[in-house]
TrEMBL record:
Source species taxonomy: Bacteria, Bacillati, Actinomycetota, Actinomycetes, Pseudonocardiales
Disordered: annotated span: 1-27
Stretches of the chain forming a coiled coil according to its record: none
Transmembrane segments: none
Domain Oxidoreductase molybdopterin-binding: 36-181
N-terminal signal peptide: none
Name of this chain's protein: Sulfite oxidase-like oxidoreductase
Amino acid sequence: MPVTRGFTRRAAERDPRLPPGQYDAGDGWPVLHAEATPSIRTDGWTFTVDGLVMTPTTWSWEEIQALPGSRYEGAIHCVTTWSKFGMTFDGVSVDTLLKAAGPFDDAAFVLARSHTGYTTNLPIEDVTDGKAWVVWNVNGTPLEAIHGGPARLLVPHLYFWKSAKWVSGLKLLPQDQPGFWERNGYHDRGDPWLEQRYQGD
Ligand SMILES: Nc1nc2c(c(=O)[nH]1)N[C@H]1C(S)=C(S)[C@@H](COP(=O)(O)O)O[C@H]1N2
Ligand SMILES: [Mo]
């Protein structure tokens, strides 16, 4: 039956790494952000973990680079339906940063913030156990300003709006506090495999 065979072939051709409703952007890497691209120098740059932590901690550019490095190799998924495969990001694991600051037991959420004022919220489980990074290199080269350089958050198992560009810190909170896109109609969590694109999904 040709109809059945056609359906089966198309299903087999779909890349199993592609979450539902996503397409492979190939070599291109779309640029998306709400604010003007800032020009942020690495001298004077800081990254701070504060809120519900024993030791609020700020790292300079040199200090964060001196931490044990960590790499992510894999896909990224934007809510506007493009995905990219085979990305290599280098930076530091959020686990390393949180370990230094020592979250209190009641720290259940984080609000990531950017040097531009952008924010995005995450449950602490989504940034611990090797699931999130602060990164400054992509595919072996320094992250360009248009992609969040000098450093951005990377939370690749969630839609890419959670990966705050020009990231400046994480605040540990007792309850969820929606960030920029989450207040503007995007889903609170943003799991691409569950197609959690917009509020109510
Ligand atoms: N500071 C900041 N970070 C941001 C955004 C933004 O508007 N401002 N947009 C998010 C969204 S919606 C996406 S899809 C990705 C886009 O990252 P890219 O431009 O490197 O592809 O950045 C995320 N991080
Ligand atoms: Mo996005």
